[in-house]
């Protein structure tokens, strides 16, 4: 079991999540973070920390976001590790809550 970062992280990237992860399994792209499924220990600490409510347990992913399970696995193998909180992206508050941000994902 793993936790998964989903659509609402895109273009927000608040990064509160990385500070609580005991195994440092977050990986960072230009406008999105992902969780490495082989490293996540399923502790659930990150889920309530995300201001954008973008993190879900693999078995509680909202309908239509199942593709993020594979996307997290794919990108976690490519992107660099992130362990310290940084400022959110400019415009994060305006983008928070918008849907279909996957179209704006930068790799
Ligand atoms: Fe890290 Fe725990 Fe969140 Fe997995 S569930 S990403 S181990 S904080
Ligand atoms: Fe993204 Fe939420 Fe972390 S917006 S960077 S999953 S705190």
Automatic annotation (TrEMBL):
Keywords in UniProt for this one? Answer: 3Fe-4S, 4Fe-4S, Electron transport, Iron, Iron-sulfur, Metal-binding, Repeat, Transport
All residue ranges annotated as the 4Fe-4S ferredoxin-type domain in the record = 1-30, 31-60
Gene Ontology molecular function terms on file: 3 iron, 4 sulfur cluster binding; 4 iron, 4 sulfur cluster binding; electron transfer activity; metal ion binding
Among Pfam families, the record links this protein to: DUF3470, Fer4
- Read off the InterPro entries from this record: 4Fe4S_Fe-S-bd, 4Fe4S_Fe_S_CS, 7Fe_ferredoxin, Fd_C, FdxA, RnfB_subfamily
Q: Basic and acidic residues composition bias: which ranges?
A: 95-107
Q: Mitochondrion among the record's keywords?
A: no
What cofactor does this protein call for? [4Fe-4S] cluster; [3Fe-4S] cluster
Region annotation Disordered: where it falls in the sequence: 87-107
> Does the keyword Transmembrane belong to this entry?
no
- Known function: Ferredoxins are iron-sulfur proteins that transfer electrons in a wide variety of metabolic reactions.
UniProt cross-references to NCBIfam families, sorted A to Z: FdxA_Protbact
The name under which this protein is listed is Ferredoxin
Species of origin reads: Pseudomonas hamedanensis
């Amino acid at each position: 079991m793993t936790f998964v970062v989903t659509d609402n992280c895109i273009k927000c990237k608040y990064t509160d999540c990385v500070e609580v992860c005991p195994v440092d399994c977050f990986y960072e792209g230009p406008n999105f973070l992902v969780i490495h499924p082989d490293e996540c220990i399923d502790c659930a600490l990150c889920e309530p920390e995300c201001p954008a409510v973008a993190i879900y347990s693999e078995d509680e992913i909202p309908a239509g976001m199942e593709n993020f399970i594979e996307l997290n696995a794919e990108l976690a193998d490519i992107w660099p590790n992130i362990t310290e909180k940084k400022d959110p992206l400019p415009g994060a508050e305006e983008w928070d809550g918008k849907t279909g941000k996957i179209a704006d994902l930068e790799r």
